[in-house]
Every structure is written in C-alpha cells, then in structure tokens.
## 1
Amino acid sequence: MKKKQHWIWQHQEYPKFYYNLQELLPKITQISENIGQVKALMTLLDKKVETSIKIDLFTSEIVSTSAIEGEHLSRESVRSSIRKKLDTTFDKEHDKSTYHTDVLADILMDAMLNTTPLKLARLHQWHVALLSHTPRNFTNIRLGVFRDYDDMQIVSGPIGKEKVHYVGLPHKRISEDINALLKYIHTSDDDIYIKSAIAHFWFVTIHPYDDGNGRIARIISDYIVSQRFGLEYKYFSISTAIAKDRKNYYAMLEMSQNLLENTDLNCTAWITWYLDRFNDALQETLNAINRVMSKTKFWDKVRHITLNQRQLKVLNKLLDFNEGEFQGGLTTKKYVAMTKTSLATAKRDIQELLKVGCLYQIEGTQGRNVKYDIAY
C-alpha cells in the first residue's frame, strides 16, 4: 500500500511553487508606494536623525528575529553593536555590546552590503556565527553543516502528546535542493518581494540545519531585497512585523507546507501574508518618521516657552506617539505616575500646559474623566 503523502516536498512537482500574480500585484504596488514615501520623507530629515532611525530599525530587526525563535536579546547591547557600525559619534566608553550582538550585527551588514552571489559557504558562515554562542555542553547542535538525519520535526505540546506540525526534507536531498534554491535566488526574474517570500518559505521547508533555520531564512530574505536597495532597504524591519504576528507566521507556514491543505504547491496565501508584513513594517517606519517630524515641529513651536522638567518629561512621552495613540489619553493620575509628583502639582502643571497651548482637552471628556493630548 502506497504511503500517504503529507508534506509538500513529497509532491511530484516540488519545488515548482505556484502563485497568483494578479492577486499579489496590489500588495507589491503598495510596497513600492510606501518605499517611495519613506525615501521622500528621509530626504527631509537631518542626517543625524536619519542615522538614528536606521539604528532603531536595525536594532529591532536583530532583536525581533531572535525573539520569534524564543531568544531574548538585550536591546541596549544590540543597539551598541549597531551604533559602532553606523554612528561616527558613538562613545565607546558607554559600549554595552557583547561578542554575540556584534556577530549578529556583522551578519545583518553582510546580508545587506555584500552583493557577491550567495553560496553554500556563506550560508554555513552565517549559521556558525548565528549559533556560536550556544553552550556546547547543553546541546548537540552542529554548526556550519547540514543535518545528516531525516525525521527533522517541528513539534509542540507535552511529552507523549506532541503535535507534529512539519517534517523536514530527507537529509540526502538537502544539498541538491539548497543548490536549486540558490540558483532560483540568482536567476529567477520573479519580483524581488515575491522571490524573498518564496526563498524564505523554501529554505524553512528544506530545514537543512539542526537549528537556526527560521533566522537564516529571514537573513536570506534580507539579502534578496538588499540586492536592489542596500542599506536603504533597512528603512523597515520585516522581522519586527513578523514577530507581531508570530502566531499566524507559523500557521501560514504549516498550512502551506501541508499537502492535505495545500495540494498543488500554491504559495499565494503565504506570499500574500508575507507582503502584508512588508507593508506593516513600512507603515511603522512612516509612523516613526512622522513622529520625529512632529516632535521637531512641536519643539520649534514652543521653544520660547519655559517648561519644568516634569512637563518636559510628559511632553516627550506623548510625542513618542502619534496624536490620539497614547492609550486612554493623558490624565492627571497618569501625570502623577510619570513624574512622581503630587496631585496638586500635577493639576497645576497641566493647567499651565493647556494655557500655553502644549496640551488640549480631548473633546467629550470632563470632570474626573477629563483627558488631554499633545497639541501639535
């Protein structure tokens, strides 16, 4: 009796992935429009501010891609590692980086700036660098080599009641399939965002390493898109957008890799989800730029007004959000919590800020429920 096929690599046409281009075109158009907006707004920013935004985005990319896999890095350490590479004013006396975060920054920069063709040796180098911090006495993970066994399973649940979400490609097929993937990356005329999505999906489908496959897949995605934009590409963080929708990330992969649900190697649903995350990431960057521009405009408007340290602290906090985004609005109670001052002082500070036009009372709120927001 013929064994029932369960995974897409068992399909006779694998790895010939299909997708509906007409369904994806609006998503791609939106990405191009958003990138155009980001680049246009960036030209209006001071070079120092532009560098600061890049550092934030690069930091988020490294922190988020690790968080997706359950590894939680110190944002401060990662930021120091990135600043050492991008910020000429970085004070090394306040360096919080570690060897591991420096290595992760090196990988990101290599993916974005090294335009040489992606080969097996580079993949292995990324893998070694990515997992070299893992204590050898607690794991048997082999670095820089593909696995030499089958039964690579993605499972969840307690021991004895595990649910198998996916089983990776047989190890004897890994090298041939990876070479086919690399050829696709360098020769396919697919749109780069579609190519990025397919390469990501294809790599985690192969699942060639003992560990780190998801992170390598996201690095490959960075490499592909960076071939067109270089450092400009990282005006957004795709891993941050994926991390915010982590549950659906795994659900979409599982559905697309399962022949019982995806009988014809159709990747349209996966690519659609992936392109949506690109647009989410770009929108977050646009929001960040708008916040910076709003801050600049606001402080220019109130530069003649004398404000105390409590008022400055609260205004800066509100300026970290777009108008209306500060959850629940500013209340006297929140002002007290943020400044550690008395209720009477908080009320007086707020009244002064209303008088000079730094705050406004949100319409429809009054009495004990009165709320305020920043007046741009």
Note: The chain has a mean pLDDT of 89.
## 2
Amino acid sequence: MPSVSSPNTQPEPESVPALSVPTRHRDNPLTRSKPALIGFAFLALMFFACLGSLPWTLSAADSSVSGVPRYDTGEPKSGRLPPQWWPYDEIDTSRSIAAVDKAALAQIATAHNSTIDEILDGSNEPAAKAALAQAPAFILGSDTLGRSLAVRILTGGGISLTIGICAAFISVGIGTIYGAFAAYMGGKVDAIMMRIVDVLYGLPYILLVVLLAVASNAMLDEYQSRARTKTNWSINQIIDTQSLDSGDPLTKSEARIIFETDAVIQDELMLQAVQIYPRRVFSAGTRTTLDVLTLLIAIGGVSWLTMARVIRGQVLSLKNQPFIEAARALGSPGHRVFIRHLLPNLVGPIVVYATLAVPQAILQESFLSFLGIGVKPPLPSWGNLAAEGLSELNTFRSHWWLLFFPCALLGMTLLAMNFVGEGLREAFDPKRSR
C-alpha cells in the first residue's frame, strides 16, 4: 500500500555540493571598531600636521633675523588678538588697528583726509575699516608677545608627540626586557627583581622626574662652568706652592680649607683658572635639545614598571606551555627559546600596551610642562601653552583661545589614542573576538 504523505510534511531541501558552498565572510578585526578607525584617522591627521610641520616651524622666519625660529617670532603690539574668524569688539578693533605699521597708517590717513589719531580712536569710520583690513590676522589668535598661536600649537604638538612616542618606546623596551628576564629566570632572581619594582612603585613619580631633571641640569651646568675642575686645579696649586716653600706638603683637605677661607688666594687662583679652563658655551638650540632628551629619558625611565609586571605575567603563563617544554626537550638553548618561541607570543600585549603608553607619556609630559618642570619656554608644548593660557583667564577680560585650543587638541589626541588602543586590544585578544 503506497504511503500517503502528511499535508504538514515539509519537502527536504535540495543538497548543495560542498565545494560550491560560499565562503563565510570574516571581518577584519583591525577595522571592526568604528571609534578606533576615527581615532586612527584623527591621529594620522595630527601626526601629519604637527610632525610634518616641525621643519617649517623650527626654521627661522626671516633670513635677516638669525637664530629666531618661526614659533618664537612676533611683535608685542600684536599681542592677545583673537582668532580672525571671531567677532571683534571695540577693544579688539582698536588693538588690531594699533598693530598696523605706522607708515601704512599714515598712507591711509592721507587717502581719507584724516589723521592717525582719528583712525586709532575710530572717529573716522572708513579710515578705521581700511586700517583694520591691513591689521595682522591670526587663524587661532596670538599670545601675549604677538606670536601666532597656530604655529606654536603645531610646534608644541610636534614636541609633545615626539616626547610621548620616544618615552613610550623607552618604557616598553625596558619593561619588556626586565619583566621577561625576571619571569624566565624565576626563583630568587625573579623575587629580587620584582621587589625592586615594588620599591620603585612606592616612590612618588613626580619626585623621581624632578630629581632626574635637577641632576641633569646640575651636570650640564658643571660641564659648562667647569667649576669643579677650576677648584681642583686651585687646590693643587696651593699644595704645590706649600711643598716648594716649606718642603712639607699639605693634605688635600688642608689645602681646601685654605682655599675656602682665604678670599685673596681664592680670587687670585680662580682668575688664573679661568684663563686655563674657559667656560664652555652651549647654543640655545643645543641646550633645548638636551633638556628635551633629559625629559623623555626621565619619563621613559620611570614609567616601565607596569609594563614589566604585564610581561612577567605573560611569560610565566607561556613558559610552562607544551611547545616551550618541547623546545627545551629538543635541546634548544635558553636564548633561542626566548627569541624564537616566547617573544613572538608577546607581540600582542607589547603592541597594545605601547599604544596605551603613548597617551600616558604625552599626558605626563604635558603635566610636567604645565608645572614648569618639563619643556622650558620659549619652546612650546601643549602643557606649557595651557599654563600660559591659564593666566589669561580673568573676570575682566579673558583671552579664552590661549587655553582652549591647546587643551582641546591635547584632549582629542589622548581620546583618539585610547580608542586606537582599545581597537588593537580587541583585535589581538582572541577571547574578545566575535
């Protein structure tokens, strides 16, 4: 008897050959996060604008003015002018007209049958408008010395980004080597090395950076003045003179007491020492470069502690894995196991932490520069530009642009870097894959 199919029975789907099945689309983890893409685009723009313009902003603005870079060029009479797109009030208008060259004002006054005083006080409106058209204009305003804030922000951004990136690389390098070595050696070596990290964690960060900055400045001052060399030469001269006169040589401590107590001998010997050991002179650019290098080494040299702990934990979890034990069983030496097997598995955490360490280093540099410890004026950074703008906020008349633009760019850059770091963390972490 033939079987009768039920009306509710569904027909079986037609089978599809396995080779003709379309491949499953897999998204790219690096482009999965839209905030990370936006942050990456913003960072690319900031790097291109700030770092790409450094050769132009650090160069001399005028060949006739030697040694004055473009970021430090300006006239005080053009100081505190708002951005050119911002509406001017009466004070801003009179200040802009006063910044016009006197010869140009004289020509405008002659053309409008007026005087310079009438143009300055605004009584002759057509002449005042003509003078205002020739007044200096700044896209982001000017600071107290008449320097373009846009140029100084570009220079400060290049300095802050350079210090942040270099300091982050230093901290990542030190932390990776330190933490990996401690975890790989294990035992007492690991315990001692990590107790050192605990002690450094207990010290104030600002205190360490200040001590390093003061010590480096003292070393540079000593190298320039050669005061210690002159003092040692003078003491040796006292010892030699006493030996020739009495035949009984003085000790160095006795000679030092004579040098410090007898002002006549001290002045005479120091005059001779100046002729023999003249003062070394650093150019302004060399001293600025040395200060910046000291700052980035100080920041990178004290911010590797967290990286060391992260890498130590990763190495401790990896070195007991079967593939590490297999490499050891095959007779691979320790350095080969570390370089060929451990280090490639640490690339993900290193890249992610480096991305997060850059904004931390930039924020530290800006904070130190805001306090006056970091980058020294006239070289700008986002930190000292914010410090200069803070003093321009008052209840009578606030020059808001001097504080707003450096802080806005700093905040957006740090936010974009955190977005990029979060995107990289999601891309490299298999537990967070979708």
Note: The radius of gyration is 33 Å.
